[in-house]
Amino acid sequence: MSKRKVKETHMPVGECISQVQMILRERFCHQRLPEKPVGMESQHKHLLELLRRTAVHGESNSVLIVGPRGSGKTMLLNCVLRELLEVKDVNKNVLPVHLNGLLQTDDRIALKEITRQLNLENVVGDKVFGSFAENLAFLLEALKKGDRSSSRPVLFILDEFDLFAHHKNQTLLYNLLDVSQSAQAPVAVIGLTCRLDVLELLEKRVKSRFSHRQIHLLSSLSFIQYLDNVRSQLSLPQDFPDTKFYDEWNDSIKTLCEDQSVVDVLQRHYNSSKDFRSLHLLLMLALSRVSASKPAIKPTDLLEASRVCMVDSKANILHGLSILELCLIIAMKHLNDIYEGEPFNFQMVHNEFKKFLQRKSHSIHNFDKPVVMKAFEHLQQLELIKSMDSSTAKIQKEYQLMKLLLDHSQIMEALQKYPQCPTDVKQWAMSAFG
Amino acid sequence: MVRYFTRLRVRRIYKWGGRPYIFDRKLKSYGFEYLNMSVEGQEAVTTVTPGQYILIEGNDDEYPFVAKLLKFFGDESHKQKKALVQWFLRLSEVPQNKKLLLGRSPHPQEIFYYLGRACDNEINAESILGTVQHVPEDTPFPEPGTKDTLYVKLSWDTKAFNVLDPVLMQDTPASTPPKPALPLFPPCASPTATPVSRGPVRRALPTPDPTVMRRAGSVSDTRATMSAGKRSTLEAESIHSASKLSASKILSAKRRGSAADTPGVRKKLQLSPGKKMTRADVLCELLDEEMESEKVISLKLSSSVSHSLQHGCSLSPMRSVCKTPNGQRRFPWKLSSISLDRLSPTGYTLSILDSGTTGIDRVITLQIECLDSYAFLSSQRATTPSRRKESAMAIREPALGVLAEEDSEDSPMQPIALTPRSKRKSAQLVSLRIRKQLNLLDNTQKLFSDGDDDCFVPSMKALQSSTDEEKSEEETVVRKTRGRNGKTSARTPCKTPSKKVCMVTPSTPRHATPSIPSRTVPARQPGNILDEARARLHVSSVPESLPCREQEFQDIYNFVESKVMDGTGGCMYISGVPGTGKTATIHEVIRCLQHASDMDEIPTFRFIEINGMKMTDPHQAYVQILQKLTDQKVTADHAAALLEKRFSNPAPKKETTVLLVDELDLLWTRKQNVMYNLFDWPTRRHARLVVLTIANTMDLPERIMINRVASRLGLTRMSFQPYSFKQLQQIITSRLNKVKAFEEDALQLVSRKVAALSGDARRCLDICRRATEICEHSASHPSSTGLVRMSHVMEALDEMFSSSYITAIGCASLQEQLFLRAVIAEFRRLGLEEATFQQVFVQHRALSRVEGLQPISVSEGLAVCQRLGACRLLLLEASRLDMLQRVRLNVSQDDVLYALKAVRD
C-alpha cells in the first residue's frame, strides 16, 4: 500500500523529467527553431524583406549569408522561411530549392536535384531524365520562359556556397545569378557560407552578376548576454504542464547560473568560442545526467560535462600505452629537445632507449629489438608519430624519418596521471637531457 | 543512331528534253520544254516539266526545298542547266520568332507560298531531286503522318502569313500543258489496271455478287506472283492508284474532324475482334467507326504496305462503276473486296451497310496513291542498302498518299473537282473494317440510287455470317501480324523525322515543356516611389535606350547591317570587363535591326545567341546552334556535320544568320575546333553568317587562340571601356527616368565610387537598389520615406565594399584573438610568414599566461585554429597533419593588430 503511494508521488516527477529532456533535447539538437533568432534582428529583417520582395513582387535577388560555423546562418534562414511561408499570399507561391555543397558535389548532380525539386516535366517519379547538357538546357529554358509577374518565384538555397564555387566553370552559379539579373522567372539565390573570402572565389563574370549583398552573422555577444542565453536555453517554456515542477526547475536553473563555479566554466567556454553549437554540446552533457532521482542540473554536472568537453584527446590515448611505448615516447621527446624538432628514426629512438636502460633503469629490463619495433609501429598506428616521407616502401623501417605529434606538456601531463608509473621513468622524462 | 555522312550519293543524270524553244540573243540562252532525270544505273527516266512542283537539294536531306518550276533554260553548250522557280517555304524555314504568327499548329506537310524578296529564284537544274505532289489551298489537311504531299494554304512574305491568293497558284508564267510525271510503268503491271480497260469491267460488276467476290478473293491469293520485289510492288501500286478518282477532299475533311483521337481508334479496333458481337452491334459499330476507320486505314497502310499493294493489284480487275448524276464517272469501287473478309489470308473485312436511314451523305475514297516521279526516284535510291531512310520513305509513300488525283488522264497533277454529292437523297455507306495490321485500302462509300440499296442486303448477310468464323481466324492473324510487325518496325516509316535523330540518353520524356509553374496570386505592383525606383534600377529591367554606348552601338549596327545587306558574312570580337554593356548593346543592335527589317529597310535575318557559360561542354555549341536554327535535337558530332553542310553549301534562299557567341573563352578546347569552325563558317561563300563574339579580355585572340583561329577571327575588334562616373550617373538617371528618388549628390557618390573601383554598371545599380532599401528601413514609418540621401548610399557602399575581416576579428572569441596574436608573435620571431601549429601553440600558451587565462589543451587549441581556418582568417594545411600543419595569415598583420587593438580599447 505504502509502496504504491510512493510510486504515485514519484510518477509525475519521472514524467516531468522525460518531458524536460524532450523539450531541451529538441532545442539542443536544433530540431526546433527558436521563436525569434537572438541577437540578429537587423539581419533577420534584411533577409525577410529581401525574400518577401521576391515572393510578393517577383523581384530577383541574390544574397550571401556569411558567418562562422555555429553562428546561426541556417537557423536564421529557416526562421525567415517559416515566417515567409506563414504569409498567406506567399504560401503557395514560392518554390524553395535546397542544395548543399557537400551533397551536390558537381553541377550535374545539382541540376538533377534542382529539376527534381522543381518537379519540372522531365521528372518522372523521383528520376530526372536526360543528359547533363539536356538538363541544363531544359532548366534554363524553363527559367527563361517565366516572367516576373506570372511565374512562381524560386528560392535557391545553396548551403556551403563556397563549395559550389569549385565546380567546373562555375556554370551553375553563373546561370543562377544570371537569371537573377535578367528578366526571367523571379529567383532568389541565397548562399550560406562560413568563408569570409567567398567573393574572391567567384569568377569575375559570376561576381559581376552577384548583387554583392552579404549578411554577416558575427556575434558580438557579451558574456552577460551569453549567460542570459544559457539560462533561457535551460528554462522551461510557459506552457509546461506541471506548474509546480516548472517553478522548481526554473528556480534551480536560476541558482545554477549564479553559482560561481558554473560561471567560471561558462566563462571558459565563452572565451574559447561564442558559438551555440559548443554550448549546446556542453548543456546536453549536463542534461543527460538529470534523472528522476536527481531532478535538477547541479553545478557538479556542468563541471563534469565541461571536463569531458575540454579533455585533451591525445592525453587520453597516452594513458592507454604500455610502459615500453611510453619510454619510447620519452626517448622521442629527448631527441626532439636535442635536435630541435628535427625528425628522427627508429634506430635513434632505440639507441636513446638503450642508453636509458643501461644508465638509469632499475625497474625495466631489456627488451628485444623486434619487440621495441612492434611498440614503435603501434605508436605509428595510433598516429602519435607520423612518417615524414611519403615513399615508405623504399626505406627500411628502422630508418624511416618520423616526427612526434605530441607536445611536451601533453607528455608530462600524461606521465603525471599514468597509473603506477615507475619513478625512474618519470625522472628520466623530467631530466633535461637523456 | 547518328547518321553518318559516308553513304553513297546517288548520281543523277540530267538531260534536256524537247527542243529549245526560246532563244534569247542577249543572254544566249535557250529555253527547254522538259528535263529528263535518270539515276545512274537505272533505266527509269523522270521527266520534269515546268508547272510541276519540285524538290530541290538543300541543307537537309529530309526536308529538301520545295518550289514550283517555272521555266527551264540553259546556254548554248547545254552544259549549264538552269531553272526559274517560285519558292515555297516549309515552316522550319520560317524564323523561329515568326512561327507564332501562324496562330495554329502547323501541319508537318504544310508549305507556304514565298512572297519575300531577297531570294534568288534561279537555280541550278541539277539540284532538282524530283517532283512532289501538292494540294491546292482549299483542300483541308489530311491526318498527320502522311509524307509525300505538300499543302499550300498560306503565303509568307517574311512578315506575316496571308491567305494565299488563288491567282498566284494558277497564274504562273510557264503554262505549258502539264505532263504526267509518273514513272514508267513496268510491263508486269496488270493490264486491267490501266484506264483503257476500265469501262467494260466496271459494267460487269454493278453490284457485288458473293460468288464473284469469292473469286476475287482467290485472285488475291495469287498475289504472290505479283510481288516480285519491292520495286515492282511500288510500281504496281502506282498504276493502281493512278486509275482511281480521288475524293480526298471529303476524306480529309472527315479526317480532320476526328484526327485527334486516332490512337484511341486503333486501340478500339484491336479490341473489337475479341468481343462477341451481335449483328446489330456490328452494324452500329461499323457505322460509328466508319469515319475512324478511314484514318486507321492509312495508319495501317504505313505499317504493312506490301500487302496492300498486292491486294490492290489483284483487285483491280473487279472494279465497279457508277454514274454520278452529273455524268462524271466514278470508278474505283472496291466492292469486290467485300468477300475478302473470309477468303483472303490477310483477312480483312469490308462491310457494306445501308446507311440511308442515318442520312449520312458521304463519299469516302481512300486511295493508295502513287507516287509520282519523286517517289519513284526514291524507290530506286532505296536499292542502296545504306540509304535505309529513303527506302523507308519510298515504302511509305503509297500508304500515305492522299495525293490529289487527276480527273482526266491528261493532267495527272491537277487536283480534281469533286463530284457534287449533296444532291443525293440517301447514301450508301460502304465501310471498310480492317482488322489489325492488315491494311488496305480502298474503301469507298458509294452513292447509289435508292433502288440499289436492295442489292446490298445480301452482302450484309454474307458479312454477318462470316463474322463469327472470322473472329477466331482473326486472332491468329493478329498474332502473326504482330510478330511481323515487331520485326519490321524498324523499317516502318511512321516515325517522325526527329525520332531517327538520336538522343544521347534514352527516354527524356518527350514533349516535356520546360516551364516554371505559374503563381496563383499575381505579383504585386510597386507601391511607393522607392519601390518604383527599385524596380527600374533592377539590372533585369530593360531600359528604353542604352545611354553611353552610342559609338559602340553605331559601330556594331553598321557592321551587322552592312553584312545583312550584302548577304555576306563576317566576324567581330568584342571585349570588355563584366558589366560594361556588351551583351546589352548587341541585343539593342539586334532589336533595331529587327525593327528595320520589319520596316523592309533591310533583308530579313535570323538572330541566334549562345553562351559559353550556359553549356556543359564546348561542343554543345553545335547542338545549341542547330537546335535554334532548325529545331532539331542531335548529338554534337552530328550537329557539327549538319551545320558544316548548311554553311558550306549554296542554298538559294538563305537568310543571313547573326550569331552571338557570349563568353567565347569557354569555347576553348585543346584543338580549338569549335572556335575554328565558328570563325571559318562566315568565310564560306554561301554561309551568310555574321558571328559576334564576346569575351572579357582584349587580347584573348592572341593569348589563347592558335594562329589559324585568330587569323579567321580577323581584326574587326571592339573594346568596351569601363564606364566613367559621368556615364554611370547618366545610366542611373536614364533608368530612373524622372522618378525622383535620389539626391543628386548621392548618385554622384555611387557612380564615382563604382567608377573608381570597377566601372561595372551592374554593381552601380545594385548599390543604388540597396540604398533605397536602407532608406526605406531607416524611415520612421513607411509613408514618410524621403529621398535616398548620402548617408544611405554611404551605408550601402560600406556594406558592399568594406572588408568583413576586421569585424570578424573583432567578434571572434578571446582564445581566437589570442591565437591570432600568437601567430603574429611567432611570425615575428621566425621572420617568416609561416609557422607550424606547434610553434604557434607554444606562443599561445605563453600569451595566455601573460593574460592570466587558464591555458587550453592542445585539442582545444586545434579547434580554435580550425575555426579561424574555416573563416579563412588563417590559411591552414590539411588537418590530418595535426600539430605539424602550417599556418599562414589570410589578412595582413597590420589589419589583425588594428582589429585587436580596437577590441582592447
Automatic annotation (TrEMBL), chain A:
GO terms for biological process: DNA replication initiation. Coiled coil: none annotated. Residues 59-220 form the AAA+ ATPase domain. The keyword Nucleotide-binding applies. GO terms for cellular component: cytoplasm; nuclear origin of replication recognition complex. Component of ORC, a complex composed of at least 6 subunits: ORC1, ORC2, ORC3, ORC4, ORC5 and ORC6. ORC is regulated in a cell-cycle dependent manner. It is sequentially assembled at the exit from anaphase of mitosis and disassembled as cells enter S phase. Interacts with DBF4. Interacts with POLQ. Belongs to the ORC4 family. It comes from the Eukaryota. InterPro entries: AAA+_ATPase, AAA_16, ORC4, ORC4_C, P-loop_NTPase. It comes from Oncorhynchus kisutch. The gene is ORC4. Keywords: ATP-binding, DNA replication, DNA-binding, Nucleotide-binding, Nucleus. GO terms for molecular function: ATP binding; DNA replication origin binding. This is Origin recognition complex subunit 4. It is found in: Nucleus. Component of the origin recognition complex (ORC) that binds origins of replication.
Automatic annotation (TrEMBL), chain B:
One of its GO terms (molecular function) is DNA replication origin binding. It is found in: Nucleus. InterPro entries: AAA+_ATPase, AAA_lid_10, ATPase_AAA_core, BAH_dom, BAH_sf, Cdc6_C, ORC1/CDC6, P-loop_NTPase. It holds the Pfam family AAA. GO terms for cellular component: nuclear origin of replication recognition complex. Residues 505-518 have a biased composition (Polar residues). Signal peptide: none annotated. One of its GO terms (biological process) is DNA replication initiation. Residues 191-233, 400-422, 462-524 are annotated as: Disordered. Keywords: ATP-binding, DNA replication, DNA-binding, Magnesium, Metal-binding, Nucleotide-binding, Nucleus, Phosphoprotein. Its main location: nucleus. The keyword Nucleus applies. Residues 46-167 form the BAH domain. The keyword Translocase does not apply. ORC is composed of six subunits. Component of ORC, a complex composed of at least 6 subunits: ORC1, ORC2, ORC3, ORC4, ORC5 and ORC6. ORC is regulated in a cell-cycle dependent manner. It is sequentially assembled at the exit from anaphase of mitosis and disassembled as cells enter S phase. Interacts with CDC6 and KAT7/HBO1. Interacts with LRWD1 predominantly during the G1 phase and with less affinity during mitosis, when phosphorylated. PANTHER family: CELL DIVISION CONTROL PROTEIN 6-RELATED, ORIGIN RECOGNITION COMPLEX SUBUNIT 1. Belongs to the ORC1 family. Component of the origin recognition complex (ORC) that binds origins of replication. DNA-binding is ATP-dependent, however specific DNA sequences that define origins of replication have not been identified so far. ORC is required to assemble the pre-replication complex necessary to initiate DNA replication. This is Origin recognition complex subunit 1. It comes from Oncorhynchus kisutch (Coho salmon). The lineage of its organism: Eukaryota, Metazoa, Chordata, Craniata, Vertebrata.
